[in-house]
Each structure stands twice: as structure tokens, then as C-alpha cells.
Amino acid sequence: MKTFICLITFLCVLILVSCDSEQQPTPAAAQTTPLATPVAQATDQAVPTPEASPPGTPAPATATGEATATATLSPTATPTPAGPFTEGQIIFLWDSNPLPPPEEQGIHMYPEPQLYVATPGAAPDEWQIEPVVTGIVGGPFMVAAPDASKLAMIRSDDTNVDGYINPEFGDVSNIYVYALADGSFNRLTNNQFNPLTVSWLPDSYTLTYPQANNLLLVRLDSSSGPQSTKGFPDRITRISWSPDGRFLAVNRFPGNLDLLDATNDEVKPVLAETDFDLSMVWSPDSQWLAFTIKTNRGLFLVKSETLEVLELVNDAEYSYPAWSPTQPHLAFTHGSTLYLWDANTLEVQELVSADYISAPAWSPDGSTIAVGFTADERKGMFIGDPSTGEKQELTIAMTPYPIYWSPDGQWLLYSSQLDEQSGLYLVSRQGGTPYLFLETTGTRPPQYVFWLPE
User: Backbone phi, then psi, for 20, in 5-degree steps?
Assistant: First the structure.
């Protein structure tokens, strides 16, 4: 009897299990779900192991049989690129073509410079240097505007394509303006003139230049072209506007120097027997005009109001003057000595002497003067504050000349030669190892170098 009851119970259980199996679906096969971690792609580079991960990087998730929260990986922060190590742009003319042997250099072999612009990178040895104007022939004249935003260039063209630059055979020169802001290079004159020089007015918008014995004026937006403003008895060779725009210094044949007063159009004769190729520089307050003759020989000063003439260096000796940009102080060389002339006291002060002293260069704030020097076996640069007499010597195994300051006053650019290598070099105001900015070995040296603020 007990056996029969157990058999009946077993059959009932089987029936119930069979019914339940028909109601429940069969579980689907498990799907492989990827974890939220980067997948290493096959590359030629070694993939870093988790141990090599930089600090702060989450470790890769490991597959386990447990339900775990998946961390969302944040992108690694990209370092902010370092800014330029200094300010401004360096602009210069340079013919990069190798010079032929001396026996092949003729008097009609004209340089073919290009206008270059260099922008600084994150370190002193990182510069982007590129040509912005090409097709220049001969030795152009170039001058920066008072606000340092643009450059005026007198560019000669081989118009008759005979291989020479000569106005008497139809070749012409024109005035162009290069703007730093947008890199534009526009011609202002129209192939009818051959200006020898050009001078900016204080507005940095108007230019004056000579055509034979006439003065012409042209504005950057002038659609009517140049306008004649004043005539002189002889051909004009050099001109220079005072910083306040009141006086125009006019140098002309056979050796005259005049001041044109723009307030009343009066021409004031200064000298009648000097030279027709004067180098002229104005004091920042427009009170004094300094000039040298015969390619930097002698040094003379003219007071603009009274026409008083002072001689600082006689015309038998070389001199290189430079006005402070902020005050009426004139630094100048006489022989191998650097002097300072004070326009307020008319006194001359000796600053430094050596076997050789280069032309002086003032820092942008007018506080410091830099000159290259050679003294016995030492070569380098003197940097001094004339107001305190403090002087710093940078020994750099070469004699720099000329010297150009960076707009922030922290770096100096100079031309020099070290062993057999020549070029433009860069050195910190505080000293240290010079950096080669541009190698020019075997070529003509760069001309019209400007370090201008952006």
C-alpha cells in the first residue's frame, strides 16, 4: 500500500514539472558586453602597461564575474602651449644667395634681397623666419613709421631688363609700404619718379619724398597720387621730419642744409658748404638735429629754433650718434670712446673706452645704452645706465655690431662673426650663451633690421 502511494506522488511531481517547463522560455545565450575602457589599437608603437600610466590616470577595468560600476574616463588635459619667449617681430632685408668669388664680382652685380619677417617661438632658438616680399633688386632704402606699424621702402626695378639699375636708361624706383598688421605690400607711386629718400610725418600716415628739386607728399589712402608741396634751387638728396612735424631738414646739392618750417612754409638756411649726403637724426623733443657728413664723419648739432650750430666731433674723424628715445641725451662715439651729450646742460660725459667701440643702441625705455667692444683679448658688449654710471660687461667671444633691442628690453640682436661663421645672434640682457638667429656665412649681411612691437 505504501509503495503504491509513493508511486502516485512521483507521477504527480513529473506532471507539474512538465507543465512549468512549457510556460517558462529557455534562457538566451549570454551576450559579451564590452567594458567602458579604451581599446588598444594595433600600432607600431609600444602600448604602455597600466603600471606605466601617468599619475592620475584611472587603471584599466578588469573583467570579473561581479556586477561593478564602470568609471567614465576623463580626457587627459592638453598642456597649454607656451607663449613667445619675447615680444615683437624682427624684419630685415637679406640676399641669401652665396657671394661669387671676388674676381667675379663686378660693379654692376646688384644684390637681390628679400624682405623677411621673423616671429619668436617658445624659446630663443625657436623662430619662424619667412620671406614676405620677393623680386627686389639693388639696395633699397627702408624706414619704419613713427608708430612702428609699417615700413616704407624705395624699391628699384630693372625696367628695361638689361641687368642693371640705372635711372638714366629708363629704370625707375617706387615707394611701397609694408603693413605689419595684415602683411600687405602696396605701391604708392606710379613709375614716374625716382626718389632717393623718404620720411614719415608723425601721423604715420603721410610720407614726404623728393623728386629732383621738389618735395612731394603722398598719403596712404590718396587716390589722386603724390602732391607737389615745395621747390628748392637744387636737387634734394636727404630729408628728415622732426618728431613733432614742425621742421623738415632738407639736404641738397652742392652741400646745403635747410630747415623748412611747416607752420609758415619758411625755409631757413643752416649751412651752405657742408655735404650733400648727410646722415640726420632728430632729438625726441624736436629741439636738436644731429648730423654726420661724408659717411659718418664728424658730428654736428643744429638747434631748430635759433639755428645755432655746435661741433662735437670734427669732420676728419668717425662718429656714430644715437638719441635716447625718451630724453634729449645723445650717445655718440669718437674714436674708441663712447660719450653722452646732455642737451639741457650742453655738457659731454665720457662713458666707456676700449680698443674698439661700436655704434651705440638705446633700450626702448631710454634707460640703458649697449655697445660692442674689443679690449685686449676680450670681446663682447657693454651695457650701461648713464644716469647711475653702472656698467655691465657681457663677454661673448665676438664683437657685436650693429645692435638692436627687443621691444621689452630683455634681449639684444646683433651681427657678428664667430670663427668662420657669420650671422645674426641673440643674447639675453642678463648675459649667457648667445643663440644663432640667422646664419649668413658666405652671403651679404642683412640690412635695415628692425625689431618692432606687434
Answer: -70, -35
Read off the C-alpha cell for 129: 623666419
Q: Which three cell numbers stand for residue 256?
A: 646745403
62 pLDDT tier (thresholds 50, 70, 90): very low
Q: Strand pairing partners for 395?
A: 380
**Are residues 252 and 213 in contact, defined by beta-carbon separation less than 8 angstroms?**
yes
Instruction: Provide, for the chain, the percentages of residues in helix, strand and coil under a 3-state DSSP scheme, each rounded to the nearest 5.
Output: 5, 45, 50
Which residues have CB under 8 Å from 99's CB, separation 6+?
Answer: 105, 442, 443, 444
Q: In degrees rounded to 5, what are phi and psi of residue 140?
A: -70, 160
Reference 136, options 454, 453, 444; nearest CA is 444
Three-state secondary-structure class, residue 51: helix
On the question of pLDDT at 6 being above 60, the answer is no
> Which segment of 107-111, 139-143, 185-189, 194-198 scores lowest on mean pLDDT?
107-111
The model's pLDDT over 144-163, given as tens digits with 9 standing for 90+, comes to 999 999 999 998 877 788 77
- Residue-level pLDDT at 393: 94
pTM: 0.79
> What are the Cα distances from residue 194, in Å, to 93, 155, 191, 435?
20, 9, 8, 40
Whether cis (ω within 30° of 0) applies to the bond prior to 131 is no
Do 92 and 447 meet the contact criterion of CB atoms below 8 Å apart? Answer: yes
The 10s digit of each residue's pLDDT in 175-232 is 999 999 999 999 998 866 678 899 999 999 999 999 999 999 999 987 778 888 999 9
Residues 6 or more apart in contact with residue 248 via CB below 8 angstroms:
199, 208, 215, 239, 240, 241, 242, 259, 260, 262
Q: Which residues have a Cβ under 8 Å from the Cβ of 26 and sit 6 or more positions away?
A: none
Lowest mean pLDDT among 39-48, 248-257, 390-399: 39-48
DSSP letter assigned to residue 310: E
* pLDDT for 106: 63
Q: How far is CA 331 from CA 101, 124, 210, in A?
A: 39, 29, 30
Contact 425, 438 (CB under 8 A): no
Start-to-end CA span in the chain (Å): 113
For residues 287 and 307, the answer to whether their CB atoms sit within 8 Å is no
- d(CA 281, CA 298) in angstroms, rounded, equals 14
Q: Are 412 and 427 in contact (CB under 8 A)?
A: yes
* 389-398 long-range Cβ contacts below 8 angstroms, 24+ apart: 391/351, 391/352, 392/431, 394/427, 394/431, 396/425, 396/427, 396/434, 398/425, 398/434
